[in-house]
Write a structure and sequence with these properties.
Strand order of the largest sheet: 1-2
Order of helices and strands: HHHEE
Structural class: mainly alpha
Strand content: 5-15%
Radius of gyration: 16 Å
Number of helices: 3
Largest sheet: 2 strands, antiparallel
Oligomer: single chain
Number of domains: 1
């Protein structure tokens, strides 16, 4: 699976999806909890994607300056961060404005 990662599937899965995705999810929750705008997700995940690619290179001799692998990592981290952001924002809206909104799914809310 060289199209997915230059280090192998398991290295990609553990380092990028589990560790990097977990950090991205928590970063999204933190951004939403402090009421920051959503556009900051893209900036912070660009930095986290660079760090994850550095760990690929430092620990497993991966290709550090590959735009393809960087964008793949970035896309996965943005998805995880957006999920964490939306989850926390939904919790905030239905908790703090319970008289106005009710949860309709884990990621959405609606008017009462």
């Amino acid at each position: 699976m060289t199209w997915l990662s230059d280090d192998g599937f398991w290295v990609f899965f553990i380092l990028t999806v589990i560790i990097g995705g977990g950090a991205a999810f928590l970063a999204g929750r933190g951004l939403a909890k402090s009421w920051k705008p959503f556009w900051r997700v893209f900036f912070y995940m660009a930095l986290l994607a660079a760090a994850v690619r550095f760990f690929h290179q430092a620990l497993f001799d991966g290709n550090l300056l590959s735009p393809y692998y960087y964008l793949l990592t970035y896309a996965i981290l943005v998805g995880a961060c957006a999920l964490g952001y939306r989850w926390m924002r939904t919790t905030q809206m239905v908790t703090q404005y319970g008289w106005l909104y009710v949860r309709s799914s884990p990621l959405t809310w609606r008017h009462r």
